[in-house]
Design a protein that fits this description.
Blueprint (H helix, E strand, L loop, with lengths): L2 H10 L2 H15 L3 H14 L5 H11 L3
Helix pairs in contact: 2-3, 2-4, 3-4
Length: about 60
Amino acid sequence: MNPVKEHFLEKSTSKEILDIVECLDRAEQANLLIEVVYTALKEMKSYPKSSPLLCLQVALEDWDC
């Protein structure tokens, strides 16, 4: 199998990716997807050592999702 495809398949089924998708689903259900993603990006800029998942979780809390 192509190494790029293999790497993608490993990542796309990882626990972290599934948790990110769950966070995005929660934000979308609350009609706050854009606000949550924007807040998460600002969080990533302020705390570059934080994981994308953690930044999304913080943003969800900030928007009470």
